[in-house]
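CATEGORY: protein folding

GOAL: derive structure tokens
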Amino acid sequence: MVESIPANDLENEYSWIGRPEYPAKLLLKMLLFSYSRKVFAGRKIAEMTEENARGVLYK
């Protein structure tokens, strides 16, 4: 579902200053996965991402 979104719709602006950005599609996958599990708090999302990142986000 997320992969079907055109990249230019999500990644219009780049900042060349500071650390590299996380890919927009990856962040969207994280949010959709956590919301589907009824997790809305940022710290809980980060914790759940660490536990499930390899199996869910990098398919």
About this structure: The helical segments are 7-10, 24-36, 42-57.
